[in-house]
């Protein structure tokens, strides 16, 4: 395995190529521009295609087209651009096309700021587009995890014939860390030949891919998807549970916030306070069991730490806590970053205040 | 042991390059390191800042409120960030541009006129390398040999004079840092 000191966006781009991605279309927006910049030279090296689209709408529809041919397709953007792609992502879901969408998120709402924020949780997990569909949402906390999740993202997308989102804030997009890169995956039509438009695997018949279905077929599609979402929850939920065994306070945080919170937890542990953490790695499916199964005879409080105000994960947390202990929140927003002292102080105030 | 460095200045002063070089050198020495740049939408100028963390252990949080060492290349950066250095920490100042500024209590200061030295060496562009040299000379945070190897790699496609100029800048910086 090769180790490299890489920037977050570039690590994701390389992991996509190694994971079999051969098509990218996107439109520039900070803080994700290093992804298209990297792929503009890297994809042609491996026989792939890179397109800088004329808009976000055009780009997501090019991804729709590329995915329909059975090839692994990617687009990336940041909050405002993802909003523009929403229609296309919903069409991907309805046409049952696998594709990966990366959101390197920034401050919002509106045009927001170009500085990092975790302000797109609700968009990613509840309504990535109209019409009531879900996509798996992966939220890496380190660049190594970003590489691993991106590398395997198309396997999930193809297995379930559904778009997959990778949600990572601008800090992780810009940061440089050491990563270990996996081997290049063989790109075959193995998972897509049964339905894709390309005539592969000795096939001579034609397939049709359409996002337009008659009502009964559309209902059937939705019933199928509903079952699939339950399956994801059982099979594909990813979570890190950290020091929960004896925890009296449980922090819930994902991505960059989880890293800052973990350092605060380690410091509080040294001081003798029993604090643990649930870190969702899949934001959807949300790791419900990790929170539902906490020992509430011991747990005195759950603390939601996010780089956004107000906290967006809170409802998902409260649905699992079910009023068995108070839920607190702390965050920064608009492109103002969390920092080790602020997060420590926020958690310490709650933990020590209980004494 | 976790050591944090904030490089600050304005776009074009080589702040980001210096930060990446330090982080890269630490990685080459089998330490753990993170590099986080922060800058605005400006194409030129504007405030530039990067945080480098070097540690023997895996780095949990890459975001820090206060740093062990603050490097300031101009007055604006100094005024913005001088309160962010820890008690007992180190301030490395470009004294060609930072004059008559109040120094916070309880911090050590290393003042080096890096712009003037770089000009004497032949090009103001190597001011960041003089500064990096001074930092290494004063703290020994990374090994000079490993940094030299990484500089040689970085400039291998450029004219030999450019590498040679950077080497002289590094040597001069290290000398000033050691004697400070």
* Helix-residue proportion of chain A: 40-55%
Q: What is the overall shape of chain B?
A: globular
Strand order of the largest sheet of chain B: 2-3-1-4-5-6
- Supply the CATH class of the largest domain in chain A: Alpha Beta
- Reading the helices and strands of chain B in chain order gives EHEEEHEEHHHH
- Percent strand of chain A equals 15-25%
Mean pLDDT level of chain A? 96
Number of helices of chain B: 6
Q: Give the full name of the CATH homologous superfamily of chain B.
A: Pyruvate-ferredoxin oxidoreductase, PFOR, domain III
Task: Detail the topology: elements first, then pairings.
The complex is a heterodimer of chains A (355) and B (180).
Chain A lengths: L1 E6 H11 L2 E6 L7 H12 L3 E4 L3 H13 L3 E6 L1 H16 L5 E6 L15 H6 L9 E3 L4 H18 L3 E6 H5 L1 E6 L33 H21 L3 E4 L6 E4 L2 H16 L4 E6 L1 E3 L3 H5 L8 E6 L7 H8 L5 E5 L8 H14 L2
Parallel strand pairs in A: 2-3, 2-4, 4-5, 5-7, 6-7, 10-11, 10-13, 13-14
Antiparallel strand pairs in A: 1-8, 6-12, 9-11
Helix pairs in contact in A: 1-2, 1-6, 3-4, 9-12
Chain B lengths: L1 E9 L4 H14 L3 E8 L7 E9 L11 E6 L2 H7 L3 E10 L13 E5 L1 H8 L5 H13 L4 H11 L5 H20 L1
Parallel strand pairs in B: 1-4, 4-5, 5-6
Antiparallel strand pairs in B: 1-3, 2-3
Helix pairs in contact in B: 1-4, 1-5, 3-4, 3-6, 4-6
Summary tags:
heterodimer; A: 355 residues; alpha/beta; Rossmann fold; 2 domains; 7-stranded mixed β-sheet; 12 helices; 20% strand; B: 180 residues; Pyruvate-ferredoxin Oxidoreductase, domain 3; 6-stranded mixed β-sheet
């Amino acid at each position: 395995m090769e180790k490299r000191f890489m920037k977050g966006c570039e690590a994701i781009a390389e992991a996509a190529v190694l994971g079999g991605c051969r098509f990218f279309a996107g439109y520039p927006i900070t803080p994700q521009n290093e992804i298209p910049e990297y792929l503009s030279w890297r994809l042609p090296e491996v026989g792939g295609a890179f397109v800088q689209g004329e808009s976000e709408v055009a780009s997501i529809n090019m991804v729709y087209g590329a995915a329909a041919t059975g090839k692994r397709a990617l687009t990336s953007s940041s909050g405002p651009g993802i909003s523009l792609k929403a229609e296309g992502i919903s069409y991907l879901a309805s046409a049952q096309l696998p594709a990966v969408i990366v959101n390197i998120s920034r401050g919002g709402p509106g045009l927001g700021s170009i500085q990092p924020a975790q302000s797109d949780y609700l968009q990613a997990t509840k309504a990535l587009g109209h019409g009531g569909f879900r996509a798996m949402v992966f939220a890496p906390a380190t660049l190594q995890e970003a590489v691993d999740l991106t590398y395997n993202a198309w396997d999930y997308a193809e297995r379930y014939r559904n778009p997959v989102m990778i949600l990572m804030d601008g800090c992780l997009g810009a940061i440089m860390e050491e990563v270990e890169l996996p081997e290049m995956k063989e790109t075959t039509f193995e998972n897509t030949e049964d339905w894709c438009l390309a005539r592969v695997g000795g096939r001579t018949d034609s397939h049709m891919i359409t996002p337009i279905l008659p009502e009964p077929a559309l209902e059937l599609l939705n019933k199928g998807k509903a079952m699939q979402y339950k399956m994801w929850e059982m099979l594909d939920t990813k979570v890190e549970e950290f020091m929960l065994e004896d925890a009296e306070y449980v922090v819930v945080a994902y991505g960059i916030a989880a890293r800052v919170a973990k350092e605060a937890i380690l410091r509080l542990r040294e001081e003798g306070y029993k604090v643990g953490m649930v870190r969702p790695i899949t934001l959807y499916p949300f790791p419900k069991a990790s929170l539902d199964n906490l020992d509430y005879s011991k747990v005195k409080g759950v603390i939601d730490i996010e780089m956004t105000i107000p906290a967006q994960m809170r409802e998902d947390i409260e649905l699992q806590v079910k009023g068995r202990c108070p839920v607190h929140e702390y965050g920064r927003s608009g492109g103002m970053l969390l920092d080790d002292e602020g997060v420590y102080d926020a958690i310490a105030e709650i933990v020590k205040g209980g004494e | 042991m976790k050591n944090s460095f904030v490089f600050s200045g304005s776009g074009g002063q080589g702040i980001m390059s210096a930060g990446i070089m330090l982080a890269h050198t630490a990685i080459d020495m089998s330490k753990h390191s993170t590099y986080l740049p922060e800058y605005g939408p400006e194409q030129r100028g504007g405030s530039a800042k990067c945080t480098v963390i070097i540690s023997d252990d895996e780095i949990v949080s890459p975001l820090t409120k206060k740093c062990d060492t603050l490097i300031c290349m101009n007055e604006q950066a100094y005024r913005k960030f001088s309160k962010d250095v820890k008690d007992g920490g180190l301030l490395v100042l470009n004294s060609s541009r930072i004059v008559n500024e109040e120094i916070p209590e309880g911090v050590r200061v290393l003042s080096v006129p890096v712009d003037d030295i770089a000009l004497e060496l032949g090009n103001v562009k190597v001011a960041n390398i003089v500064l990096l040299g001074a930092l290494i000379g004063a703290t020994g945070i990374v090994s000079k040999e490993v940094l030299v190897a990484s500089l040689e790699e970085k400039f291998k496609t450029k004219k030999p004079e450019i590498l040679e100029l950077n080497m002289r800048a590094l040597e001069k910086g290290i000398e000033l840092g050691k004697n400070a």
